[in-house]
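pipeline stage [seq->struct] | target=Kelch motif-containing protein | organism=Stigmatella aurantiaca | residues=369
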Amino acid sequence: MSAGRSSLPRRIPYAGIWIDNYSLTAVPGGALLAGGIEWHPDGIGSRSQTTGGAAFWDASAEAWHPLAPLPSPRHDHAAVTLPDGRALLIGGRADQIMEMHSTLLWDPRTQAFQEGPPLREARARPVAVTLPDGAVLVLGSEYDDDLERGTRAELLRPGARAWEAAGQTARIFHTGPVCVSGSQVVIAGGRDNGFGFAIIDGTHYAPPLSRTTELWESERRLWRTSGPLMESRDEAQGVTLSEERILVVGGWDQGQLLATAEVWEPGTGTWSAAGTLASARSSFALTALPDGRAVVSGGLVTGTSEPTAVAEIWNPETRTWSLGKPLAVPRAGHRLAAVGAGTFLVVGNHAPSPEAPPETSWELWRPDA
């Protein structure tokens, strides 16, 4: 990879002005970009539509190759990489479909999509993780017409043609960060059971924030509670580190943006302080580095609606944060895929100039370079 030319942001091969709510998944030889919402010019404004567009980023050529459209266009879906190198797209939404049962499998050898096993429950904005044995666990849903549905998990075993029930969470209704630690799946807080989001007579209601940690054990397929988070966090980010520890960063609590972080130890099942960011931010990306460190990149800094390019790296030895190499341009809500040792493909929106609308671009980023 040529560091010189890959560091500059360049537009990805999509129609329209920009895209949102797509998936970016690391696959053998590069990364897969799939689905999303395309925004197109419409007079003095813009209009949106679900896209079936997909593209493969070839790491050897540092170039995008458009793919045949998705059999079923979607956005707000989950995407994971399977042990055999295929990518699995799960659930989501479309223009006239609020929740989807369907899944799609993409094979890097043929670079083609095919229908996968349908979910037991239709899900919009699901959360999915790949387990060490290659199985995929999915839970969560955006809609609340069934107050328990979002807490019921399902499992797809390697080679299986159908999803299986995988238990129901003990308390958490809308999940916080969901990470894998060994054979366990860890939910780091979220919103408690009780009721869904609603607006009644102009007042917004939501399930209460919870510091509860829930663990799923693969052998028994049961969820149980564990030691609580140190702070309540809404929209926090989490990532699995080396030695199966889990780092959770940021979020909101009572309208305040948090700059704090905490780490979960699998041996004790407890959380402890993991330092404080130099600047609190939302809509950032949290990424594990190969050597056990982690990096926060971009986001919207507290006190401003403008995105930042600033990155901060967490040191597990000192539990402190320090500045890392910034992104090429300010970004928020961006996605990353590991495409080499310490190298990440970054895809997200940025404004080429103060007067210009945002466009979706990509860059290669090496936090230590």
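stage status: PASS
auto-comment: Residues 17-130 form a domain with the Neuraminidase fold (CATH 2.120.10.80). Helices lie at 3-6.
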